[in-house]
Design goal:
The protein has 15 helices and five strands. With about 350 residues, it is of the alpha/beta class. A five-stranded parallel beta sheet has the order 2-1-3-4-5, sandwiched between helices. The longest helix has about 55 residues.
Length: about 350
């Protein structure tokens, strides 16, 4: 923070020597390096911090304006002074200003003027550094606060996910597998990372509406009769009504998933008999994750199917119950599916 790194560029060795002597008299905080060739100066800027550049305007190979323009591409916050000769015209100065020059000096150099101009730029650079440091610290604090809020948000989602378990004999393993299967499919379907995170944290909310289903229906060990099944079919709407209308993107995604995860690709699902891509992609994905895991899990009213039996059912229902594109993705990434299946297997 204390040192100020300056480079001086001039094809005349005597000018270089003069600037070096004038800079030494200004204090030890100035670290000056000199270059007779602008190409060498640019090479230095590529891999070294430079706060201020002092450059002659008229040089072979590259003039001062071109040098500043290229230097600012490498280090956008570099400050610069162009030294112009008596014969330099206003057009050349305009060219330098367009390139981003901060100040001008005229040959021959006046000692006091040179040192005052450099001190002004040093003050500006120090202020710039302080502001950048403050911004970095502020961003770090905001990041920490944001991470804390997100962590608490995820905890709230987990608690909500477990609410349905209070009545339904599904386990935390089911929730974890559905979340991971859903994220896997979302990734390979091409959804961006933000949507992958949404479905990962929101898909476990798919059966939240079961808290509104009577116990005698929800926990019945045998097949539901027609009246009981009609009552069971209300749980997507109950979950949707609980989760809808919030500003929380995860709860909004959960509302969509709750409402659509029992829709079928051929239009024979419920509650709205949506068909094909009328069903939100979150619902189409969660439907596969939920059914596959339900089939391979033991419940009081059923035995667990084998992995192969459940997979065969998905294939059989391709284009009927399930989106065929998603089923193809599920099958083509079956090794990843197996990894999730075995990782959370405490109820198998």
């Amino acid at each position: 923070m204390n040192n100020i790194y300056i480079i001086s560029v001039d094809d005349e060795p005597m000018n270089i020597m003069l600037i070096e002597e004038l800079s030494k008299a200004m204090g030890k905080e100035i670290i000056l390096q000199s270059f007779l060739n602008p190409i060498d100066a640019l090479t230095h800027i590529i891999s070294n911090p430079v706060d201020i550049m002092i450059t002659d305007f008229m040089m072979p190979e590259m003039n001062g304006a071109e040098l500043i323009e290229r230097a600012r591409i490498l280090q956008p916050e570099i400050l610069s002074i162009v030294i112009t000769g008596a014969g330099d015209n206003e057009n050349l100065k305009l060219q330098a200003l367009k390139a981003g020059v901060n100040d001008f000096l005229t040959k021959p150099l006046h000692i006091s003027e040179f040192q005052l101009r450099i001190k002004n730029l040093i003050t500006l650079k120090k202020s710039q550094k302080i502001l950048n440091q403050f911004n970095d610290e502020l961003q770090n604090e905001v990041k920490k606060a944001t991470e804390t809020l997100i962590s608490r948000e995820y905890e709230t989602l987990l608690v909500l996910s477990k609410t349905a378990e209070y009545k339904d004999p599904e386990t935390a393993s089911h929730i974890s597998r559905v979340a991971h299967y859903s994220k896997l499919l979302a990734k390979h379907y091409g959804l961006d990372k933000e949507k992958q995170e949404k479905i990962f944290h929101a898909s476990p909310l798919h059966d939240l509406g079961k808290i509104g289903i009577r116990d005698d229906v929800l926990l019945k060990p045998g097949k539901l009769d027609e009246k009981e099944f009609e009552h069971m079919k209300t749980h997507p709407i109950i979950g949707y009504e609980i989760l809808k209308g919030t500003k929380n993107p995860f709860l909004e995604a959960g509302a969509i998933i709750s409402l659509t995860h029992h829709e079928k690709f051929d239009g024979s699902g419920y509650p709205k008999a949506l068909k094909g891509e009328e069903i939100h992609i979150f619902g189409r994905i969660t439907a596969i994750a939920d059914v596959f895991d339900a089939l391979t899990s033991k419940r009081p009213y059923k035995k667990a199917w084998s992995f192969e039996e459940a997979l065969s059912f998905l294939i059989e229902q391709k284009g009927k119950h399930f989106d065929p594109t998603l089923i193809d993705l599920f099958i083509s990434n079956i090794e990843d599916v197996k990894e999730i299946y075995h990782k959370f297997d405490n109820e198998k």
